[in-house]
Specification:
Blueprint lengths: L36 H4 L7 H16 L9 H10 L14
């Protein structure tokens, strides 16, 4: 957190610098729970995949469990691609 109260989140275990905001990457890397559908489907992806992962993290912080889960990597991937997940607990607002 910066001195101005801005939270910055980073994961530089594996990183790729894109030359522009419209450039796409093709490497399949990442923690399975946080992979975007584009990455799972081996499609080109960009910064929007990072926003997907941030959304997964926000959901997990609220629900105390990841939105997608499965008995194996294939089942997990299918849930992510289908976008199937449980609603957040009712203690959270609808906009969240």
């Amino acid at each position: 957190m910066t001195k101005n109260g801005i939270v910055k989140l980073g994961d530089f275990g594996i990183a790729k610098v894109l030359d522009s905001t419209i450039e796409n990457a093709n490497t399949i890397v990442g923690t399975p729970y946080y992979l975007s559908p584009e990455i799972i489907q081996n499609s080109p992806y960009n910064f929007k995949s990072d926003m997907w992962s941030l959304g997964v993290l926000l959901y997990e912080m609220c629900a105390l469990k990841p939105p997608f889960n499965g008995p194996n990597i294939h089942a997990l991937a299918m849930q992510i691609v289908k976008g199937e997940f449980s609603k957040l607990p009712s203690t959270f607002s609808t906009p969240l």
